[in-house]
Amino acid sequence: MLLGRVVRNVFRGEIDRPEFFRSVANYGSGTLAITFAASSFVGMLMVLQSAAYVEKYGAQQLVGWFTGFTTLRELGPVVIALMFSGRIGASHAAELAAMVTHEQMDALKILALDVVDILIAPRMVAMVFCLVLLVAMGNTVALLAGSLAAWALMDIAPSVFFHALFDTLGSADFVHGLWKSSVFAVVIGWVSSYQGLCAARGASAVAQAVNRQVVLSAVGIFFADYAVTMVMP
Asked: What's the pTM value of the predicted model, to 2 decimals?
């Protein structure tokens, strides 16, 4: 029901714009540095994983393809979504749970204000926008870091790395990762909002809501990854 109400608001254009822009500024600045750091290690890790095959078969031309394929379609979106969930999703769930504990939700109901309209819908839309943007930038950073790692560790020039990348992968691979990131953002926003709104009263309830959000969002991300891959192979 919660997700249905959010979708209805989005299609009707009933989004609190000030809250949306505030959330975008907060989510983007709060996760940009850690996204770039994680993405860099993802790109370098993929190069290290392919190093053994390069030495064994001399397949230098496949390093760019392997790094790009695994990063754009799988590891990039999943890793960044998990970081986003732990940073933004947990914060969102904690804030809503704290509002329940301090009876702020009851005050909003007394004032005839809809929580979904003023808090949930704009923040979920902001999560989708920010996570897609973060995945696009993170994938770029991962590929750059991977090309530098390939140059330093296997003496593969960046021109060779990117030639193999662009020669074997297309825009569909890049779009595939962005579609996944948008679904992951919906899962994170959905789970964090529900866990925050349904939290019990008390200080320990906030911690429990955050804990459930992190675990269920991670499970939801992996399930969504499988489902999207089945639908869009």
From this structure: 0.90
